[in-house]
């Protein structure tokens, strides 16, 4: 494993490293389009996806260079960039555990229509970044990588949006880098689990076996049954293919085991330290995270409002994109929801 250089001074980039990053970006521009609109670094199975919103957003995924410490290699990091910059602060969309920016396929275009500068970024270790030289994928590494991406490309305080485990990523980031976050939006937040628990103690061979099961179609189909409030089998199967697409990259298993063995996210003690105003969104029929935890989170966050979405399960930004987009836009643009 190649560790990330956490001790590097902010803003330090060597000439050789910068040159290498520029070279990789140039190479990406040459190889980006596979001839059918999809970037060449996506698994070929992307062509089997039927969801038109997923297909369209997948065609917009790019890799941007993110410089980490003194390393001579930047990480080519996947995200969906806004088509144009706006005068208001950008909305930056994270994703759930073991997911990707494609999670925002239905909501992202609605945020753009509302006039927001929206970024959908892949958390280090998941999504479609180039991790051929695998970095550490622990919580601290994920936080540092997101900060470097923000410093290099976004550069303004964000409305940071985190669904499920992405809410833990968002809280951890906002507490450690408050200058980078204007507001928080937390969707069906998984923030009270104390990391990966006993999974971190598993023998490595057992951990790899469990992670291999994690990307299986039957398990992902079952997860969809729990996550969504009633969808047809063909839709569930197609959404399963969308949700596991990043698992087909060659470094996915290593990155996921690395995260599991690192202990994961434990942000329980950070919640009351959040300084930013927060919007809590919760699906009324969430069968994965209890609605009681929404009440607890509302009580423990110093400055938060909560909104419940009827007829929605654990992922309302997929099930009810119009409602979620309006809540985010009103909160971002007008400070109301």
Automatic annotation (TrEMBL):
Domain AB hydrolase-1 span(s) in chain numbering: 91-326
InterPro entries: AB_hydrolase_1, AB_hydrolase_fold, Epox_hydrolase-like
Molecular function GO terms recorded: catalytic activity
Coiled-coil intervals, chain numbering: none
Superkingdom in the source lineage: Eukaryota
Pfam families: Abhydrolase_6 (PF12697)
Listed name of the protein: AB hydrolase-1 domain-containing protein
Species the sequence originates in: Liquidambar formosana (Formosan gum)
